[in-house]
Amino acid sequence: MIITGSENRIKGKGYTYDSSSAYFTSECPDLNNDFLEIKLDFFNPAIIKDIAYLRINIYRFDNKNSNEARTIILEELYEVKQQNNIIRISNDFSEGKYEFLYGFIFKDELMKKYPSFNFKKCIVMK
């Protein structure tokens, strides 16, 4: 479920980036399928109660050789669940090089000026 009305609950001016490797495992999405499935398998499900939301950012690089210049394709917040934290998105992406950043923010970070976004990064081609 996508979280709406979240702009009133988020006070940060940006994010600091942190690794997700201590919290969950996940395979990078496959752009050759009809749907993109991003599944987060938490090592310790007890932390789910401390998570504010799941976040996914998708960027398209301006060209396949680029490592910097990119365009925002999607930035969404999703509800975290006790089980089956799977984000499924229709794969209507054109050919190109994409960067996926997905993970979560802890509840106690929400009121900080720059909360930590614990994420996994994937660069994939279509």
Key terms:
Immunoglobulin-like; mainly beta; 5-stranded mixed sheet; 0% helix; 3-stranded antiparallel sheet; 126 residues; globular
How would you describe this structure to a colleague?
- This protein is mostly beta strands.
- It has a single domain, classed as Immunoglobulin-like (Sandwich), CATH 2.60.40.
- The chain is 0% helix and 48% strand.
- It has no helices and 8 strands.
- The chain has strands at residues 16-19, 24-25, 35-42, 51-61, 70-78, 85-90, 97-106, 116-125.
- The strands form 2 sheets. A 5-stranded mixed sheet has the order 1-8-7-4-5, with no helix packed on it. Strands 2-3-6 form a 3-stranded antiparallel sheet, with no helix packed on it.
- A hairpin with an 8-residue loop joins strand 4 (51-61) and strand 5.
- The chain is globular, with a radius of gyration of 15 Å.
- The two termini are 26 Å apart.
- 19% of the residues are buried.
Write the layout of secondary structure elements.
Layout (H helix, E strand, L loop, with lengths): L15 E4 L4 E2 L9 E8 L8 E11 L8 E9 L6 E6 L6 E10 L9 E10 L1
Brief write-up:
With 126 residues, the protein is an all-beta fold. 0% of the residues lie in helices and 48% in strands. It has strands at 16-19, 24-25, 35-42, 51-61, 70-78, 85-90, 97-106, 116-125.
Count of DSSP E strands? 8
Average pLDDT score: 88
Characterize the largest beta sheet: strand count, sense, and whether it forms a barrel: 5 strands, mixed
Question: Which strand order does the major sheet show?
Answer: 1-8-7-4-5
